[in-house]
């Protein structure tokens, strides 16, 4: 995507030092001022890890099969073979903010495999935000499935195709999460927005800190063409590579649930709840509309065969 460069405002020849601003220029100026306010007010709300130079073992730990995880420099390689897949998790939990990673997916015949990058709390009534990359046979595109769990309830899948080959290079996948909305983005382009609709009686993730996770595993009972295409183990080991992790969020290390709410739950206290972050700006809305029209291949809100009564958040 080409970056949009704003044209300069027209200058009144009679008053060369006082430019005339139209409504669009004023909106841009307001957004700039809000972003400056956000940057200066993050304070103790955030704990940021720069993408380059993160010591993986300081921030994350293996959640299963550590012998299938290899760390080389800033890259973390997850391996799946016919013995096991593997996964990692953050040592701390977070509430609200942003988490992202650059990922290079399994190339070639990846049918039956799933690469997951997600955030999750613990327990039956957990909250969870998912990116799941569904493998496919050689020459067929990957699909990325997103899902949102709130208080243990999920079944909110969307699937998108991608506008690039995710196996050829690294791309950035990110979650943004505040009191008002959850945004899933690919290379800073929003592909999904899940709004807080508690007024309709829909649970929203806002009371549980979530860890950051990654995994690679075999899911050939459902991942590719509904499970019709199985994993071809003659092509193993399958390898997915992560790097450039960034977490800018409310850090809940050592906090209990009550303390977490007190620390992270105040509206407008932290950068992610400032007015400018309550919804997509005009440029992001255009990008989101483009993705929805060209790359959305499944939306649970349109699956009338699956739901006899549509979920409340799907109703206008």
TrEMBL record:
**Chief localisation class:** secreted
PTM note says: Contains at least one intrachain disulfide bond essential for its enzymatic activity.
What EC designation does it have?
2.4.1.207
Q: Where in the cell is it found?
A: Secreted, Cell wall; Secreted, Extracellular space, Apoplast
Return the InterPro entries for the record: Beta-glucanase-like, Beta-glucanase/XTH, Beta_glucanase, ConA-like_dom_sf, GH16_AS, XET_C, XTH
What GO molecular-function term can you cite, just one? hydrolase activity, hydrolyzing O-glycosyl compounds
The entry's cellular-component GO terms read: apoplast
Q: List the CDD domains.
A: GH16_XET
Q: Name one Pfam family in it.
A: Glyco_hydro_16
EC class name: transferase
> Residue ranges of the GH16 domain?
11-242
Glycan-carrying positions: 136
Q: Where is the signal peptide?
A: none
Key word Magnesium present: no
Q: Which UniProt keywords apply?
A: Apoplast, Cell wall, Cell wall biogenesis/degradation, Disulfide bond, Glycoprotein, Glycosidase, Hydrolase, Secreted, Transferase
| One example of a Gene Ontology biological process annotation | cell wall biogenesis
**Which residues carry out catalysis?**
128 (nucleophile), 132 (proton donor)
Query: Any idea what job this protein has?
Result: Catalyzes xyloglucan endohydrolysis (XEH) and/or endotransglycosylation (XET). Cleaves and religates xyloglucan polymers, an essential constituent of the primary cell wall, and thereby participates in cell wall construction of growing tissues.
Q: Which family does it belong to?
A: Belongs to the glycosyl hydrolase 16 family. XTH group 1 subfamily.
Protein name from the UniProt record: Xyloglucan endotransglucosylase/hydrolase
Organism annotation:
Nicotiana sylvestris
Q: What is the lineage of its organism?
A: Eukaryota, Viridiplantae, Streptophyta, Embryophyta, Tracheophyta
